[in-house]
Write a structure and sequence with these properties.
By secondary structure, the protein is an alpha+beta fold. It is about 35% helix and about 20% strand. It has helices spanning about 50-65, 110-120, 120-125, 135-145, 150-155, 165-170, 185-190, 205-210, 245-255, 310-320, 330-335, 375-400, 420-430, 440-450, 460-465, 480-495, and strands spanning about 5-10, 15-20, 25-35, 45, 75-80, 85-90, 100, 160, 180-185, 195, 200, 220, 225-230, 240-245, 260-265, 270-275, 290-295, 300-310, 345, 365, 410, 430-435, 470. The strands form 7 sheets. The protein has a 7-stranded mixed sheet. It has a 6-stranded mixed sheet with strand order 3-2-1-5-14-13, sandwiched between helices. The protein has a two-stranded antiparallel sheet with strand order 4-7. The protein starts with a strand and ends in a 7-residue tail after the last helix.
Length: about 500
Amino acid sequence: MASYILSIDQGTTSSRAIIFDHDGKIVSQSQREHQQIFPQAGWVEHDPMEIWVNVREVSGEALSRAQLTRHDIAGIGITNQRETAIIWNRKTGLPVYNGLVWQDTRTQDLIDAVEASHGSDLFRKKTGLPLATYFSASKIVWILDNVEGARAAAEAGELAFGTPDTWVLWNLTGGVDGGVHATDVTNASRTLLMDLETCSWDKDLIAAWGIPASLLPEIRSSSEVYGHAHSSSLLREVPISGILGDQQAATFGQVAFEAGESKNTYGTGNFLIVNTGTTPVQSKNGLLTTVAYQLGDEAPRYALEGSIAVTGSLIQWLRDNLGLISEASEVEALAASVPDNGGCYVVPAFSGLFAPYWRSDARGVIVGLTRFINKGHIARAALEATAFQTREVLDAVNADAGVDLTELKVDGGMVKNETLMQFQADILGVPVIRPQVAETTALGAAYVAGLAVGYWSSREELRGKWAEDKRFVPGMPAETSAKLLAQWKKAVTRTFDWVD
């Protein structure tokens, strides 16, 4: 039997390939960043061809670094940035336009028009989602209506839509030479087009948006063999056997399989997910209802999700736009150069505010500035913004669930920052637990791929592989954290109504 699983993690800022062994340990990995394209304010794009080239290259590099071949790989799992919309020509294999990234807000007028004509209740009831630019549907419509010839080609069945998982799967299985056009339930649940109860494309929703049904991929479970790598690939004949949206993959990698189990991922944005079992729960506090995972023919599992648009990307902004640091890793030392934020707060509403506010009219602010404030205070305020936003989402989760979470499992690139993790525990008032394998997004994709091909036998086996690395225990007096949180909430109100 082949000895390893390859996970392709197609994220917002980079594409990675990670090879895992049977113990869920990393054997080798490779990573390439891709260009972030900002044609104008509020527009965020990725080049799908660059992404596909990077996926191929990192997959080859990961194999080479481990001195492995395709014969050593039992299955391939794919995890991806969700909601990002890519449309391509089925015959040429070329995108008709850049991918519109989940952070892109150019489609607000489309959202307003659909809400005016159909209301929002239809969408929230069927999809568990609010009408927002975050999701894929309005991005599809924008491409069809703004790229010359795109709508006519789509109506003729010549084009295909997919989130990045679908784009990678289609290319990996042959592209124009018989590529598989499919997605899994977790990604489909982020489009505003899938009925949560049936896990199928909904005719009424498709009609409301005016999207040709032929554009859409087949919806499959998260753990099954979708196809095999094409003969032109280094991975030829290896089964592609798992797909999960990135946040659901991180949840699976944290072995949060059952109702009440949760995780928080610290990446480009932050995403807190709580498993609600086999029944979708509609939020009353600004959270999303989504699919957590589905294994083969089993019933799908659902979750509540608190989505925060800007956390890790705020640190990139400090680096790339302000030049306060030259490497993202430098932010911790800069933040630690001051004892507190000095009364400075950064609210990074670059794309509006996501959970629990859902304010598309909001824009980012830095408040509390005095002559005393230096770059250390700004760096500290940027880190603290991640913790404050997580606290607000956790409060919403507790209100919806009716039971307070007693601890928080964390993962993602930012959890290496111990200054942030300690402040997170302080502002939440509950322990924050970091696992030994922090790359739980890639691990979750590996797990569902491995289950589908018998590499792992069960979720119970996987649960036994999770191990704690470090536990951060609250140490801040309650009155201090309450005062800081009150100031944060005051700062958030300053972002409202900026866009008319």
